Amino acid sequence: MKLKTKLWMLTLIALLLIVLYLFVDLGGMWTYILEKRFAKVLAIILTGGSIALATVVFQTLTQNKILTPNILGLDSLYLFIHTVIIYFLGSTTLTMMNRNIQFILVVMVMTLFSGFLYKFLFSGKMKNIYFLLLIGFIAGTFFDSLATFMQVLIDPNEFLVVQDRMFASFNNMNTDILLLATVLSLLVLLYMARFRKYFDVLALGRDMAINLGVPFEKVVKRLLIIISILISIATALVGPITFLGLIVANLSYEFMKTYKHSYLISGAILFSIIALMGGQIIVERIFTFSTTLSVIINFCGGIYFIYLLLRGSRSW
Amino acid sequence: MVDIIHVTKRYGEKEVVKDVTVQIEKGKITSFIGPNGAGKSTLLSMVSRLIVKDEGEILIDGSDITKRKSQELAKKISILKQSNHINLRLTVRELVSFGRFPYSQGRLTEEDWRHVDEAIQFMELEDIQNDYLDELSGGQKQRAFIAMVIAQDTEYILLDEPLNNLDMKHSVQIMKTLRKLVDERGKTVVLVIHDINFASVYSDYIVALKGGKIVKQGTTDEIIRQDVLREIYDMDMTVGNFKNCRFCFYFH
Q1: N or C: which terminus of chain A has fewer CB atoms within 10 Å of its end residue's CB?
Q2: Which range (B38-42, B79-83, B129-133) has the least confidence?
Q3: 3-state secondary structure chain A
Q4: Range among A147-161, A255-269, B78-92 rated most confident
């Protein structure tokens, strides 16, 4: 099968799911329902796309196909921020706070954290990317532990609010934030486009990339910051969902069977939209909202992850 | 011409290359020889900007490598390291086509493909050009990587132990190819090499390093001598002439 045919197939399935989701069971108040559903579809494309893109690029930079940007500690930081707000200011502050401001705040703290991490790292002599991952991992664990500690101390009712944030969900999205997130992501993508040509070469490894004239340090630094911003936006919009990236990136490698990133990334983005869209349909129509999307994603993703580990590291 | 001027590299406290000054001439094969840990590979990596030097200057045709754009340098100088593990599943042809990246930034033109074809032909890889790299033998793989460097079409070609893990036939084949690149195309080749007989037979100029310093440099005749080699390797060798080549026997 040709690569383009494969992409068209995926696009078709994604479009089919979107149409299915939008127009089946519309009911009486169809303008209202359609508007709500449309917002969810947009959010799914935005977050699914960002996470797929960020994960594929991250795996190329780290030369590792079972890592996700999760390891930079951003998910943990997201939960930590919310726990801190609830711990010190109470859950009412969180629920009453302007959603736009809350979104910007969370994105800013997460981006600043990664910026700080890279600054600290790249200014020193240690310029190894694995060192960065290690630091991110430790920071993540630190935030996790601190958040858990605070969660134990707070009122159980308050804890429910935190718990609500632990799982990604597309059900209570705010259209204002969605617009803001879309604009922000598009700006970041526009900036990322100039590094697009380097992806294939970066996959050959550091030495090869430098030999072929890639300004390696600069490109890696920029791309890591872009990845963090993309992940921050997606996480702040719907909650921690980076695990999805691991699944869709690997599905794309397996399905596309190529080294060309233009195809790998497009494939991963489409898989991501299919997974989220399908998952959302299952959540709404079959489970009638009794579970969240991330439970389903984590369940299916977990099984796939174990399969990946058992199968070992065959290439693609 | 590559000028290495007072170059030093430290790992922590340890100086692996100490104040090395050497000039590499154009249109010649220059070999770096010396015992393990002499700093040969480090020196080569610094010239090809894979490792940042701590002190000194490296000039290529008179201009400092740290001041030039990476993409421009990639058209001037190329390096092949001793272990080339690639995570991707690539065919030989795809790998070779990566050599054109400095020129086309990934969008290969017809002229780029012509260079790719020519490099494949030069390394006699036509039969296996559509095979995947992970299905090839060590010798074939090494030839594919050299073909990529040839497609990159740089004036200076640096190779870190290109004969590693190769049998005699393939080693000779690769050294002959390098000789051809120099003699027919006017390329400049710099090698790190362990087998001093290969260095003796195929190179024009030899630079001997030991403990991070240059102990001796000169033409093949000046270096492949009993007293000089004893100084470099701390062992006795018998050096003789065989079919107009200087040859050492060191299995005492």
Answers
A1: N
A2: B79-83
A3: CCHHHHHHHHHHHHHHHHHHHHHCCCCCCHHHHHHHHHHHHHHHHHHHHHHHHHHHHHHHHHCCCCCCHHHHCHHHHHHHHHHHHHHHHCHHHHHHCCHHHHHHHHHHHHHHHHHHHHHHHHHCCCCCHHHHHHHHHHHHHHHHHHHHHHHHHCCHHHHHHHHHHHCCCCCCCCHHHHHHHHHHHHHHHHHHHHHHHHHHHHCCCHHHHHHCCCCHHHHHHHHHHHHHHHHHHHHHHHCCCCHHHHHHHHHHHHHHCCCCHHHHHHHHHHHHHHHHHHHHHHHHHHCCCCCCHHHHHHHHHHHHHHHHHHHCCCCC
A4: A255-269
Q: Rounded CA gap, A268 and A266, in Å?
A: 6
- Give residue A127's pLDDT: 63
Residue with tokens 């170059």: B7
**Tokens representing A2?**
């040709």
- Do A204 and B98 make contact, defined as CB atoms within 8 angstroms? yes
Q: Using an 8 Å Cβ cutoff, are B7 and B46 in contact?
A: yes
Give dist(CA B118, CA A154) in Å, integer.
71
- CA dist B25 and B208 (Å) reads 16
**Distance (Å) from the alpha carbon of A199 to chain B's nearest alpha carbon:** 10
Cα–Cα distance between A69 and A114 in angstroms, integer? 11
Six-digit token string for B80: 């092949």
Residue in B220, B223, B150 with CA at minimum distance from that of residue B187: B150
A71 near B CB under 8 A: no
Interface contact B84-A200, CB threshold 8 A: no
Judged on CB neighbours under 10 Å (0-12, 13-18, 19+), A222 is middle
> Across the interface, do A213 and B106 touch by the CB < 8 Å criterion?
no
Q: Which of B11, B88, B149 to mutate to test the interface with A (most CBs of A within 10 A)?
A: B88
ipTM of the complex: 0.88
**Secondary structure class of B36 (helix, strand, coil):** coil
Nearest CA in chain B to A258: B89
Mean pLDDT score across all residues of chain A = 85
Residue B195 touches partner A, C-beta closer than 8 Å: no
Do residues B112 and B93 touch, judged by C-beta distance below 8 A? no
Taking alpha carbons only, the member of B46, B35, B41, B33 closest to residue B7 is B46
What are the pLDDT digits (tens) for A29-78?
A: 888 888 888 888 998 999 999 999 999 999 998 888 888 888 888 888 88
End-to-end CA distance of chain A: 16
Residue A174: pLDDT band (50, 70, 90) is low
Decide if B71 touches A, using CB distance below 8 A. Answer: yes
